């Protein structure tokens, strides 16, 4: 059996005295698309930050491709494509400049994957990313992570600020790409209805713990007639 | 990869650098235009007298330019990295993080060094027309501390940008103000000759403040 791509054991974190979670453990198997769902403040972005080595947890450990996330080597980072919340990019660059920059760092860079998406963008060649709409910026971000040809894609709230058209484009491209290339995807999102057709497995967090971690199909079979969003609200409660 | 790191820094800083270079050129031109007028009307002997007897180096108008250039360049390089936590993108690149930070800082220090060297060279070439080389050297040795302040301003401003909490930024600002004030404390020409190497060492060591800020960022320190 292949080693899990992500392994987190007994993760515990606090912001000051506020507990985010305690003894959180989960694994992500290779080739799976896993969605981390939860209400605001349950620790989704905290988990992404810990996985990427931007936050030291109070307790527990995480490994990606067998390496401690606090000390991921450049060779392993080459295998991980990261999308930050808000599609944050080097917004002082235009689409050609940012492609030129990133391609130098990734030997498996797929230029066609990037420019294939960029052709759909209606932007002037010299237009810098900061002058683009949210949707256009998300397309640039998607193009960059697809072109990296990484083994693991980590996306934090990939649908933030996107209209339904761009969200659908994003989900369809991502799923087709991940399944065709056997990539592992770990993502968070607030828009749960997008995830129904995208994810293989869901992890639903509540304040302080994991409520559910199982395949999306199995979960939805337990709640016949309900959407994933309905199930999420049933499990976590309305506000 | 190193070329692309320089490329990225160039894209961030090119317009600011143009402004800095033009300002340096304009103020330096103004400085020596004034001196040339003095020489034309009163003769170079007046410059000699001022240099030898009056504790002046004639180029005091240039004093704070390097410091301003250093702070502006640091802001142009590092503010874009920390807004929206874009530093996460840079740290995620498949390149040793320590070397990445060093290369970014070396770009800034090198660009400042080139600007300062050009100004010093132009100053030397013009002054040599009016005074002997020993007096030109005295002026350049005095100006060297101003250039050191430029580098110090750059490194401290970068450290302030990279620091994730306001409390520690305040501490760094106090340290920066204290160190820079020390560099400008004496107006006596060549007053710092004796311990210039120590000051240079302190400035070089202050590169470590950048690493400290990034380490705190990676630990998740926040206000």
List the helices and strands of chain B in order. HHHHHHHHH
Global shape of chain A: globular
The arrangement of helices and strands of chain A along the chain is EEEHEEHEHHHEHEHEEHH
CATH fold-level assignment of the domain at 6-79 and 151-236 in chain A = Rossmann fold
The secondary-structure class of chain B comes to mainly alpha
Helix content of chain A: 25-40%
CATH superfamily of the domain at 6-79 and 151-236 in chain A: P-loop containing nucleotide triphosphate hydrolases
- Poorly predicted regions of chain A: none
Q: What is the CATH top level name of the domain at 6-79 and 151-236 in chain A?
A: Alpha Beta
Terminus-to-terminus distance of chain A: 41 Å
Number of domains of chain B: 1
Overall residue-averaged pLDDT value of chain A = 89
Largest binding interface between chains: A-B, 25 and 23 residues
Q: What is the tally of helical segments of chain B?
A: 9
The main pleated sheet of chain B reads as: none
What spatial form of chain B do the alpha-carbon principal axes imply? elongated
The major beta sheet of chain A can be summarized as:
6 strands, mixed
CATH architecture of the domain at 6-79 and 151-236 in chain A: 3-Layer(aba) Sandwich
What is the topology, as strand order, of the major beta sheet of chain A?
6-7-8-3-9-10
């Amino acid at each position: 059996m292949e080693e899990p791509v992500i392994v987190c054991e007994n993760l515990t974190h606090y912001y000051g005295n506020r507990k985010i979670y305690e003894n959180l453990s989960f694994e992500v198997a290779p080739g799976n698309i896993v969605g981390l769902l939860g209400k605001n403040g349950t620790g989704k972005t905290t988990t992404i930050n810990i996985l990427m080595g931007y936050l030291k947890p109070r307790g527990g450990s995480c490994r990606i491709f067998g390496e401690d996330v606090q000390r991921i080597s450049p060779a392993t980072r080459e295998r991980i494509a990261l999308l930050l919340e808000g599609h944050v990019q080097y917004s002082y660059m235009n689409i050609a400049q940012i492609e030129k920059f990133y391609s130098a760092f990734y030997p498996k860079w797929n230029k066609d994957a990037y420019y294939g998406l960029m052709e759909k963008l209606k932007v002037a060649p010299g237009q810098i990313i900061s002058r683009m709409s949210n949707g256009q910026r998300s397309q640039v971000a998607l193009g960059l992570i697809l072109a990296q040809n990484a083994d693991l894609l980590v996306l934090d709230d990939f649908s933030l600020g996107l209209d339904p058209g761009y969200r659908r484009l994003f989900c369809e491209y991502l799923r087709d790409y991940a399944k065709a290339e056997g990539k592992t995807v770990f993502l968070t999102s607030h828009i749960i209805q997008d995830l129904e057709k995208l994810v293989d497995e869901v992890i639903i967090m509540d304040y302080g713990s994991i409520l559910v971690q199982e395949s999306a199909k199995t979960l939805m079979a337990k709640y016949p007639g309900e959407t994933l969003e309905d199930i999420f609200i049933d499990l976590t409660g309305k506000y | 990869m190193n070329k692309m790191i320089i490329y990225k820094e160039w894209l961030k800083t090119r317009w600011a650098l143009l402004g800095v270079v033009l300002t340096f050129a304009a103020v330096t031109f103004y400085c020596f235009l004034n001196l040339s007028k003095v020489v034309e009307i009163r003769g170079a002997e007046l410059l000699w007298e001022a240099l030898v007897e009056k504790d002046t180096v004639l180029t005091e108008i240039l004093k704070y330019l390097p410091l301003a250039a250093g702070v502006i360049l640091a802001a142009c390089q590092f503010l874009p990295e920390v807004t929206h936590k874009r530093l996460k993108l840079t740290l995620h690149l498949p390149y040793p993080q320590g070397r990445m930070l060093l290369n970014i800082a070396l770009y800034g220090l090198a660009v400042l060094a080139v600007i300062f060297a050009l100004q010093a060279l132009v100053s030397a070439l013009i002054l040599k027309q009016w005074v002997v080389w020993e007096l030109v050297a005295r002026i350049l040795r005095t100006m060297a501390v101003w250039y050191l302040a430029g580098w110090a301003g750059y490194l401290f401003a970068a450290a302030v940008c990279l620091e994730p909490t306001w409390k520690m930024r305040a501490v760094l600002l106090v340290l920066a103000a204290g160190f820079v004030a020390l560099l400008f404390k004496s107006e006596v020409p060549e007053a710092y000759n004796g311990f210039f190497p120590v000051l240079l060492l302190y400035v070089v060591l202050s590169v470590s403040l950048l690493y400290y800020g990034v380490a705190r960022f990676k630990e998740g320190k926040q206000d």
